[in-house]
Write a structure and sequence with these properties.
Elements lengths: L5 E3 L5 E3 L3 E2 L5 H14 L3 E3 L7 H14 L8 E6 L6 H15 L4 E6 L13 H18 L3 E7 L3 H10 L6 E5 L7 H9 L3 E5 L14 H10 L3 H10 L4 E2 L6 H8 L8 H8 L16
Parallel strand pairs: 3-4, 4-5, 5-6, 6-7, 7-8, 8-9, 9-10
Antiparallel strand pairs: 1-2
GO molecular function: oxidoreductase activity, acting on the CH-OH group of donors, NAD or NADP as acceptor
Protein name: NADP-dependent oxidoreductase domain-containing protein
Organism: Helobdella robusta
Length: about 290
């Protein structure tokens, strides 16, 4: 089985609809999970400077790609600018460090991870200045051929509108928390209008509780389709052309997550899941950032 479901980005490059999330993936788990993921058919890998696992991922891919008769061009690599690395100088320095860590000379997608600068108050206007500088430096890296596509993570519609006023290269991807307890429909409509691909993280809700995964409606829909609760939640996003980034150290779950392309939810299923919206952020809420 291969992960062939793709989305065409506004940069002209294609991106798999499902990527392997690597948040909190450390040590020996990195090699084991990437090995299994490549075997199952994953071809996109999502990391970040703050995850502190870029080097381990780079080492694993260097060894494992030949094992599966794959080249660098066969996979899609995503990483994100750490909040402490905003600004033109630090953005470039730490982007090039990410390239070294991942043992590649380009990235398929590079995102601003957070609209604020680590150590600055969310209300400090320096955040506006430095994220602007970061974006301008990312555009230069695109022109230099070191990045194929650029985007942002945890941006609100207000942050996006600001970005569109000065960007010369438009963002290709917005990565945000998005699930049936946080249905950001206006933001999704904004993305669709601007040909900006929305990619969801925390599709299963919170790591600290299973309120979404154990929801009775989710369970009923899963039983109807003979799939898992997690597959229903991932499919709810993917069927709306929203990318997903599931992560798991459970090999069985890792394989199951790719099977969301084997069934379809009904329109009523999607509407019913939308009705679970509680405007609930289980992760970070960027609304506080100026």
């Amino acid at each position: 089985m291969k992960c062939f479901d793709q989305v065409l980005l506004n940069s002209g490059f294609t991106m798999p609809m499902i990527s392997l999330g690597t948040f909190k993936l450390k040590g020996d788990d990195v090699f084991q999970i990437i090995d299994a993921a490549l075997n199952y058919g994953y071809r996109s890998f999502d990391t970040a400077q703050v995850y502190k696992n870029e080097e381990s991922i780079g080492n694993a891919l260097k060894i494992l790609l030949p094992k599966y008769n794959l080249n660098r061009k066969d996979i899609f690599l995503i990483t994100k600018l750490g909040p402490k690395n905003h600004g033109n100088v630090r953005c470039r320095v730490f982007y090039l460090q990410s390239l070294r860590n991942l043992q590649t000379d380009y990235l398929d997608l590079f995102l601003i991870h957070w609209p604020a600068v680590q150590g600055c108050k969310p209300s400090d206007e320096i955040n506006i200045k430095l994220r602007n500088e970061s974006w301008q430096e990312m555009e230069k890296l695109v022109i230099e051929g070191k990045i194929n596509s650029v985007g942002v993570s945890n941006y609100t519609m207000r942050h996006l509108e600001e970005l569109y006023k000065y960007c010369k290269i438009e963002p290709s991807v917005l990565q945000i928390e998005y699930h049936p307890h946080l249905v950001q429909s206006k933001l999704l409509q904004f993305c669709q209008k601007n040909n900006l691909h929305l990619q969801a993280y925390s599709s299963l809700g919170s790591q600290g509780n299973n309120l979404l995964l154990s929801n009775n409606l989710v369970r009923q829909i899963a039983l109807k389709h003979a799939v898992t609760n997690a597959q229903v939640l991932l499919k709810w996003a993917a069927q709306q052309n929203i990318g997903v980034i599931p992560k798991s150290t459970n090999l069985e779950h890792l394989a199951e997550n790719l099977k969301i392309f084997h069934f379809q939810l009904t329109e009523k299923d999607i509407d019913d899941l939308n009705s679970l919206d509680k405007s609930c952020h289980y992760c970070w809420n960027p609304e506080c950032v100026i």
